[in-house]
Amino acid sequence: MDAAAASRLCTACGLCCSGVLFEIVKLQPEDSIRDLEKLGMQINRKKTEPYFKQPCRFLDDCTCTIYQHRPTRCCRFECFQLKLLAAGEIDEAKAQSKIDEARRRVAGIQSRLEKAGDTRTEDSLTERVERALSSLPDESMKAEMRALKIYLERHFRTLALSTHCES
Ligand code: SF4
Ligand code: SF4
After folding, report:
1. Which positions ≥6 away from 142 have C-beta within 8 Å?
2. Which residue has the CA at smallest separation from atom 1 of ligand 2?
3. Which of 20, 3, 159 shows the shortest CA–CA distance to 77?
4. Residues with CB under 6 A from ligand 1
5. How many CB atoms sit inside 10 A of residue 152's CB?
6. N or C terminus of the chain with fewer C-beta within 10 Å?
7. What is the pTM assigned to this prediction?
8. d(CA 155, CA 132)
9. What are the residue boundaries of the structural domains of the chain, listed by start?
10. Which of 47, 46, 54 shows the shortest CA–CA distance to 18?
C-alpha cells in the first residue's frame, strides 16, 4: 500500500466518516468508552453494542481530528478503493475519480435536501433523505439516492477483489 497515496485519497474523501457510507460506528471491546467520551464522543450505550452516530463530530472537512485516538473500526476500515490501490489493481488517479464521482453525487442530493428545507446536517444522508421523502415525495431525489447507494456498494463497500477492474 502506498500510504501517502491512501492518506491523500482519504483526506480528499471522508465518505466513511461523513454519514454517507455509514450511519453508525460500533465500538469494539478494545475501545475505551471512557477515553472516547473524554475526547467528546457521544456514545450510545443503550444497546448491547455501544456505538456513535455519523456524521462523526470529529470530522473536520475530510480530516479526523482524533486520528491518533480513533476507535478500532475506524483504524481497520479500508474501502474497496483503498483495497484495489493496495493490490495494485488501480492507481491513485483512478481511485480519486471514483471518490470525486461519489462526492459529486452526494453534493447533488445535499443540494436537493437544502432546497427542500432540510438543514439537519447532523444526521446521516440516509436519514435526511428518508425524512424529506416522507414529507414530500420526490421521485428524482429517490432515484438519485438509489443510484448513489448502488454506486457506493459497487465502488466502496465491496469486499471481494476482482481479478480485473473496469475503467
Ligand atoms: S471511503 Fe475510502 S478513501 Fe474515503 S475516507 Fe474512507 S477509507 Fe478513505
Ligand atoms: S473518529 Fe475519526 S476516523 Fe472515526 S468516524 Fe470519526 S472522523 Fe472518522
Report:
1. 129, 133
2. 70
3. 159
4. 9-10, 13-16, 21, 77-79, 81-82, 99, 156
5. 21
6. C
7. 0.91
8. 26
9. 15-76, 80-157
10. 54
